[in-house]
Design goal:
single chain; 254 residues; mainly alpha; two-stranded antiparallel ribbon; 10 helices; 2 strands
Length: 254
């Protein structure tokens, strides 16, 4: 197993809290009275829909690949993991944009010329100063503490949307295993050319025994992209969205 018993318990305990936090978010945003119709739509049909998808993605990841997994996932399971992680990251990014839109519409935020903000000006990250500058000093200071996290989410989201999608490696090998895998691949190709199908299957089975599964997600090895242990990362990202949402509601109610 990749995780220690203590780590597994911590992850399982954190996962057990996801449902309750989702229900709390749903009640907070779906039952609130909004002054502006567009703000209500971004809250109820944007934000709450996205957090429901995020919760479902977490459920799926922990079902397909629980923290105490002791074998390599199948090709189909790896594909399903990638699909759910991709959907999760996109909706983390989108859920925060939805909250920014709620603020802009509910508070009637305009640019310095008194015109509506463009789509590219609306968000919570540091670069969206047209929105950030309209918050209280306390909320601005809080968001500033999350600048590195916003960069992390943006890195994964932009690669997913525009360059290389998130990927879960089937296994990780050490130097000796990499060398042996190359030897077996050459032997397997030779066996196939000679129509030695039983030998081909035997060599394929041996290749499958090499390496160990690690619960990492990344997007591009060529770009030397960051790697993240996805069980912990998606819980951390979820909890961050929950925390931002709670602070945001306080800001909205001022």
């Amino acid at each position: 197993m990749y995780f220690s018993e203590d780590n597994i318990k911590q992850l399982q305990d954190a996962y057990a809290e996801v449902e309750g936090k989702y229900q709390s978010l749903l009640l907070t945003f779906a039952t609130r009275t909004y002054e502006q119709k567009e703000a209500a739509e971004f809250a109820m049909h944007g934000f709450t829909r996205r957090v429901k998808t995020m919760k479902r993605c977490i459920d799926n990841v922990y079902r397909i690949c629980p923290p105490d997994i002791d074998h390599k996932p199948s090709s189909e399971e790896l594909s399903d993991l990638a699909i759910n992680l991709q959907a999760f990251i996109l909706n983390v990014y989108g859920s925060l944009d939805n909250l920014a839109w709620v603020w802009v519409k509910e508070k009637g935020i305009l640019n310095k010329k008194g015109k509506p903000l463009s789509n590219g000006e609306i968000g919570f990250a540091e670069k969206y100063s047209a929105v950030r500058d309209t918050f209280s000093s306390e909320f601005q200071a809080y968001l500033k503490t999350l600048d590195k996290w916003f960069s992390h989410v943006e890195n994964f989201r932009h690669s997913l949307a525009h360059r290389i999608p998130l990927y879960v490696p089937p296994y990780v090998s050490n130097e000796e295993e990499v060398k042996r895998e190359k030897e077996l691949e050459d032997l397997r190709t030779d066996a196939l050319k000679k129509h030695q199908f039983e030998e081909f299957e035997r060599l394929s089975d041996e290749i499958e025994t090499l390496g160990n599964f690690v619960p990492w997600m990344t997007h591009s090895f060529g770009e030397k992209s960051p790697q993240a242990v996805f069980h912990a990362q998606i819980i951390a990202d979820w909890n961050t969205v929950v925390q931002i949402s709670e602070h945001f509601v306080e800001e909205l109610n001022k």
